[in-house]
Amino acid sequence: MRRISFAAMGMIVAFGLAACSGGGAGSDETTGSGSGDAGDTLVGVAMPTETSERWIADGKAVKEGLEKAGYQVDLQYAADDIPTQQQQIDQMITKGADLLIVASIDGTALANQLQAAADAGIPVIAYDRLIRDTENVDFYVTFDNYNVGVQQATSLLVGLGIKNADGSDGTATGPFNVELFAGSLDDNNAHFFFKGAMDTLQPYIDNGTLVVKSGQTEIEQVATLRWLQETAQKRMEDLLTSTYNDGSKVNAVLSPYDGISRGIITALQNAGYGPGLDAGLPVVTGQDAEIASVKLINDGVQFSTIFKDTRKLAEQSVVAASSFLAGEEPEANDTESYDNGVKVVPSYLLTSDIVYADNIQSLLIDSGYWTEEQVASGQA
């Protein structure tokens, strides 16, 4: 596993420990069953899967941050299985968790568990994926997911030469054939990503610069269940067979996640595109700066990804947890955007960056997120 730096955690640790002085975490009857000592305070952390290196890193970072703040941590991964995650959260409540941090598999499938948490006075923080259709979610820590979609679409335009990386207009005029992919419909973030991307691309589709040759432009048509690489590869293969069997070529593919991107690239290479961008491989976007895709970008295969520094996300979840466990409300910087169908959930949004081959060093290596050796090998 790659090394995760917590240079900024000192402030959080101090805050967390200070939060547990005096009356102490859990001393208010509405903050769970804590005994007043941070060391006796249990935080349940529910993560969706270990099949993505991103979620492994998130779980590790959240656990380390909470433990440095003095809390006990019950970290569970659910193998992308909804009943397993439901069971895990039930068990956390039964074990006496004082607070829950939940990255949901299906944001609509946890109503019973969160009602049980509310009945027990346990605050719930939604982690990066909004939990929907329940009033029993207290806070949301995430990135500006609409802007992530804007960044994905922008990087596609840059790759085609329609825009320059500095935001100015490029010289390319098209028309370019593009295909669209989205994430899993049961993940609320997928809708934000797709909307941000489509709001950015639609003017170019309307004026003919971009052509979606398949005609598949609705999220229901382009979604990828569970964000699975093999599902994306199969859909790309089907698109090539059904839509590009007349000698026409795909010029770019909007992908919302690096695993999906790698499936798309595999399908394209198997169909004779590439092997890299300089040999005719279409521009393919991505998200999460997974090390396998960062290597592909460095090697001139994948064009871009979005870097969401999950260390910052983990840190913010610890800050929010410490506030709740002190009987206080966490600081929100957005109280309007994230309506879960029942309530607008107070949120803290973080910023993200577009990664191209020429800024891997400054964004990922210099920040300590990946090392030069990891980028070269494509392995964490």
Attribute tags:
380 residues; alpha/beta; Rossmann fold; six-stranded parallel beta sheet; 13 helices; elongated; disordered N terminus; signal; Sugar ABC transporter substrate-binding protein; SBP_2_dom; carbohydrate binding; ChvE-like
DSSP helical segment count: 13
**Gap from first CA to last CA:** 6 Å
The radius of gyration over CA amounts to 22 Å
What is the string of SSEs from the N terminus onward? Answer: HEHEHEHEEHEHEHHEHEHEHEEHH
Averaged pLDDT:
91
Tally of strands? 12
Helix/strand structural class: alpha/beta
CATH topology of the largest domain: Rossmann fold
CATH class of the largest domain: Alpha Beta
Largest sheet: 6 strands, parallel
Strand content: 5-15%
Extract low-pLDDT stretches: 1-36
Domain Periplasmic binding protein: 43-329
Signal peptide: 1-19
Pfam family, one: Peripla_BP_4
Keywords: Signal
